[in-house]
Amino acid sequence: MQDIVAQLKALEFINWTTIFGAELLWSALPFIILLSSLANERIDDDLSRHIGLNGQGARIVRSLFRNTPAHAVEPILTGLIFSFAGIIAVVDSLQVIYERVFDQEHRGWRDLPRFFLWVGVLLGFLIAEVVIGKPVRTAAGPVVHALLSFVVVAIFFGWTMRFLLAGRVPWHLLIRPALVTAVLWLGLSLFSSVYFSSVVISDSRQYGTIGVVFTLLTWFILIGGVIVLGTACGAVWQKRRGRGGLRTDSHKSPEPRR
């Protein structure tokens, strides 16, 4: 436990989870609003499903998004630019977190093409999840679906660490961080399904539409916490198992630019 606490202090856990959550809100929410304006289907319903909202909570979240198409070029381009800039900032922060955990030199904007490719893979992953996720959930049942989700999330985060670290950390050092992150991700899904519906309803009644945004910010911050905590705990677990050490001769990554 002391090793985990020391690792989280070194990572500035509170700062980075807050930064990561704010960047997700800044990038993901406008992007979903833009897609909901353009698409023929309700994109925001997928957001509600991922959070685990009940019918009433989903209806409240749906009120944030317009259900009639808007095709004016200027607001679409402006929204895309701001959303994509926010998404790239999220990926950069994710890379910094992994570099700090594994004691790697910060590559930063040298990896901009890598950031673009990661975003493309993520979008493909989300589209595939939308297309095949519902049939799988219906056919497999909740237990099997949870196991499949665990495997998919572990593979995705393991690949993400390897890819954003540009192959500087061996695969076997990434297995445990990916597994712990996947466990915490499923835990967050369960917690969200129990907790957030009542919070969305309460915040909407008390604060109106902006209250829903506060709830979404909390959810995004929890996602950041899962990623940072999962990676840190997995790295400590790996060190204690003694299966190879992390690099100790590399430069420390710089302080956050923010």
List the helices and strands and how they pair.
Elements: H1 2-11, H2 13-38, H3 44-51, H4 55-62, H5 73-101, H6 112-164, H7 175-207, H8 209-241
Helix pairs in contact: 1-8, 2-5, 2-8, 3-4, 4-7, 5-6, 6-7, 7-8
Structure description:
By secondary structure, the protein is mainly alpha-helical. It has one domain (2-241). The protein has eight helices and no strands. The chain starts with a helix and ends in a 17-residue tail after the last helix. Residues 243-258 have low confidence and may be disordered.
Shape label = globular
**Using only CA atoms, what is the Rg?**
19 Å
Query: Terminal Cα separation, in Å?
Result: 29 Å
Largest sheet: none
Poorly predicted regions: 243-258
User: In total, how many beta strands?
Assistant: 0
Work out the count of structural domains. Answer: 1
**Tally of alpha and pi helices:** 8
- The SS-based structural class is mainly alpha
Features:
258 residues; 8 helices; 78% helix; single chain; mainly alpha; disordered C terminus; globular
Question: Quick gist of this model?
Answer:
By secondary structure, the chain is mostly helical. It has helices spanning 2-11, 13-38, 44-51, 55-62, 73-101, 112-164, 175-207, 209-241. The two termini are 29 Å apart.
